[in-house]
């Protein structure tokens, strides 16, 4: 052994210790701070033209409530405390003016349309209970109201169609606890281990089988974190159609595959030993397998940039929506909005097999989650507060319910490396502007994105997460899903989401054109004895609404676009193409008595003439009376001419979800993302992203490490500071 080796090793170790000490000490010092600061924005009124689309301010909401309470001549109870037999204000939202008036104001220098609100009222305290919708205005100081119910729906809205208020669910919960469960004391105590608070109920919908019904299955779960995947096998059918809570009754009870007249009959059968009892292991309070608590130590990493013009807001029923979308100063679309989110379940339990959730009725925009920095959106995103008035007399502030950020998507928008002839690299980072909200409707969490790309494309995307609803596993349950725990059946369901896309390509009047391909046989000109199969372009103008209504599973032309009356530099009609991403399951059979209420889901794409009297593809009243739908989208399609008209595209996208063991504790967004793209198709003379400041280009003869040649080379210097992170806050509970 070399005698000097130990000394060499000691010296080397000392040097390493010194370096590590310096590194540790340097971490304690304050790093230089970046100049850019995050922006916090509260969404309020604006003096710009976009005010015509702006959500109601808290002050406007309060004025509407004050006006209605003083001018309707009937008592109005706060919806958070209302009985079914009371009158109350269910919601107040902005009433967007007719498009023609808005365009005269935005484009023609016309007068600003009067600002108005739409108020939905439940009138239970009168001889003819009903739901009435009033337009109230002008804001901010209203002096008039007009009933628009008949104008919108062709008649009065019967009271049984009203969306269920949160207070009604509380009243049903109290009914179960105080009057229903006590009639089966032995069963509830010994089988359910019920202590008055250990069970949670989840509603099914729709509520019955025909118009007028308000009879609902309530599925019972262990009341633990993530209860949606902890069924106990007990379900109760409650008839809550009477406006007198004292007259509510139990119509049926279901337990472990068997039906009973009521809880008394179930108790008798249990005491006599005539039922098959399946004891469910009691879950800990955190839910055990359904817990969202991290199973490993956390690690932090953070992502970071396109000027665009659009107005945005949150509808109380349908959520995120955009208006007056422009690129390079020219309007591309007048409105892009969510319309509905539908889920149709299968099960061998009554609550599961009868469930068809229409989330707009529950309020997609009523339940935006406060967004968590660094998880729901990038930490340094701009967070926007919104306001709503629903189920109460006072407005509520939704803290950080929207976020806006630029995102590096981690791939090039376009690039090329040339090693033939000339040597060069050219590329552009794919940075996009994202507007996001996340809403929680029961067990489902929906991540709603509108994404703006540098090439002029716009994407509407929804990612589904949350908990997979479940049934108690019994009998032939595996025909309807996968077993995910001892007594838990992850039940099969379809998810369908409908969007309204009012494109105005090069102006209001557009036509719908389909391009596709077909193979043709031809002889090779250079060798006539040989044949070549070559693809050719096929073209067709879709003249009528019937031609433009593409059934869900039917073949649709791969290029469908709104064509302008103007042409680009190369002689082609300027257009925007509609491209969908969908893995939708089968649609409910049209023979179903409730199918017309969700008839928008028949079509992957339907293009109709735009009409003010057809503002939405569905109605919040369809959930509780799907057998006589207040709005039936199928009626929109009546073979009208759609050439050179103001057109609307109704896009349906979705996926089939068969829950599996990896959906425990809850469902991930990966693979559960669907939506659509609006892509420029000969709209520009070339790709507009070529003008982006983020482009990179260098040749073999240039110094690609020089900042003036390649800005990316400067990143190590510009990124050597720490961003000024705001403190973490959360106002979700």
UniProtKB/TrEMBL annotation:
Transmembrane listed as a keyword: yes
Keywords per UniProt: Copper, Membrane, Metal-binding, Oxidoreductase, TPQ, Transmembrane, Transmembrane helix
Domain Copper amine oxidase N2-terminal residues, every copy: 76-144
Cross-referenced PROSITE patterns: COPPER_AMINE_OXID_2, PROKAR_LIPOPROTEIN
Gene Ontology molecular function terms on file: copper ion binding; primary methylamine oxidase activity; quinone binding
Cofactor binding comment, as recorded: Contains 1 topaquinone per subunit.
GO process terms (BP): amine metabolic process
Protein name: Amine oxidase
Annotated organism of origin: Charadrius vociferus (Killdeer)
């Amino acid at each position: 052994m070399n005698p000097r080796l130990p000394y060499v090793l000691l010296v080397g170790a000392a040097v390493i210790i010194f370096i590590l000490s310096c590194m540790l000490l340097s971490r304690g010092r304050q790093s230089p701070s970046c100049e850019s600061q995050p922006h916090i924005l509260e969404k309020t009124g604006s003096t710009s033209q976009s005010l015509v689309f702006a959500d109601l301010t808290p002050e406007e909401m309060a004025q509407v409530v004050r006006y209605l309470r003083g001018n309707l001549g009937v008592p109005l109870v706060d919806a958070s405390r209302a009985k079914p037999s009371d009158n109350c204000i269910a919601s107040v939202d902005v009433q967007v003016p007719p498009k023609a008036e808005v365009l005269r104001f935005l484009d023609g220098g016309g007068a600003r349309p009067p600002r108005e609100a739409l108020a939905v009222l439940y009138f239970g305290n009168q001889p003819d209970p009903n739901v009435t919708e009033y337009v109230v205005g002008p804001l901010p100081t209203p002096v008039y109201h007009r009933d628009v119910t008949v104008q919108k729906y062709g008649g009065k809205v019967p009271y049984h169609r009203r969306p269920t208020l949160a207070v009604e669910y509380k009243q049903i919960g109290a009914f179960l606890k105080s009057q229903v469960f006590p009639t089966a004391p032995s069963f509830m105590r010994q089988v359910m281990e019920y202590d008055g608070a250990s069970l949670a109920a989840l509603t099914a919908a729709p509520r019955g089988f025909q118009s007028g019904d308000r009879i609902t299955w309530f599925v019972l779960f262990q009341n633990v974190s993530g209860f949606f995947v902890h069924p106990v096998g007990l379900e109760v059918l409650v008839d809550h159609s009477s406006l007198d809570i004292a007259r509510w009754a139990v119509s049926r009870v279901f337990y472990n595959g068997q039906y009973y007249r009521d809880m008394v009959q179930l108790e008798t059968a249990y005491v006599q030993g005539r039922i098959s009892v399946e004891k469910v292991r009691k879950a800990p309070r955190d839910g055990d397998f359904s817990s969202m608590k991290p199973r490993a130590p956390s690690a932090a990493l953070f992502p970071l940039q396109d000027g665009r013009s659009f107005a945005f807001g949150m509808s109380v029923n349908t959520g995120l929506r955009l208006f007056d979308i422009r690129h390079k100063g020219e309007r591309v679309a007048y409105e892009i909005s969510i319309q509905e989110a539908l889920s149709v379940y299968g099960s061998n339990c009554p609550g599961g097999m009868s469930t068809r959730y229409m989330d707009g009725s529950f309020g997609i925009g009523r339940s935006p989650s406060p967004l968590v920095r660094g998880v729901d959106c990038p930490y340094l995103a701009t967070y926007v507060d919104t306001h709503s008035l629903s189920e109460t007399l006072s407005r509520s502030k939704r803290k950080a319910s929207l976020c806006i950020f630029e995102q590096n998507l981690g791939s090039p928008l376009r690039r090329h490396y040339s090693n033939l002839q000339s040597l060069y690299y050219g590329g552009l980072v794919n940075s996009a502007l994202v507007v996001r909200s996340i809403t929680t409707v029961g067990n489902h969490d929906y991540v709603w994105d509108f994404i703006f790309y540098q090439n002029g494309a716009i994407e509407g995307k929804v990612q589904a997460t949350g908990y997979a609803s479940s049934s108690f596993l019994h009998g032939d349950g595996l025909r309807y899903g996968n077993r995910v725990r001892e007594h838990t059946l992850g039940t099969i369901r379809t998810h369908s989401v409908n969007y309204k896309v009012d494109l105005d390509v090069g102006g209001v009047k557009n036509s719908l054109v389909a391009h596709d391909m077909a193979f043709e046989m031809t002889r090779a000109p250079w060798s006539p004895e040989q044949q070549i199969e070559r693809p050719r372009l096929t073209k067709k103008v879709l003249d009528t609404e019937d031609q433009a209504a593409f059934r869900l599973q039917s073949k649709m032309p791969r290029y469908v676009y709104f064509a302008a009356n103007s042409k680009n530099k190369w002689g082609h009609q300027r257009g925007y193409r509609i491209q969908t991403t969908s893995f939708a399951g089968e649609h409910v059979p049209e023979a179903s008595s409730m199918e017309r209420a969700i008839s928008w889901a028949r079509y992957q794409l339907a293009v109709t003439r735009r009409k003010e009297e057809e503002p939405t593809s569905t109605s919040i009243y369809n959930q509780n009376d799907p057998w006589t739908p207040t709005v039936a989208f199928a009626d929109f399609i009546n073979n009208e001419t759609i050439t050179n008209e103001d057109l609307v595209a109704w896009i349906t996208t979705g996926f089939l979800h068969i829950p599996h063991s990896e959906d425990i504790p809850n469902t991930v967004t990966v693979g559960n993302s669907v939506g659509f793209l609006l892509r420029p198709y000969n709209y520009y003379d070339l790709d507009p992203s070529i003008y982006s400041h983020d482009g990179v280009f260098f040749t073999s003869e240039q110094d690609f490490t020089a900042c003036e040649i390649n800005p990316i080379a400067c990143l190590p210097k510009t990124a050597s500071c720490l961003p000024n992170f705001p403190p973490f806050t959360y106002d979700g509970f």
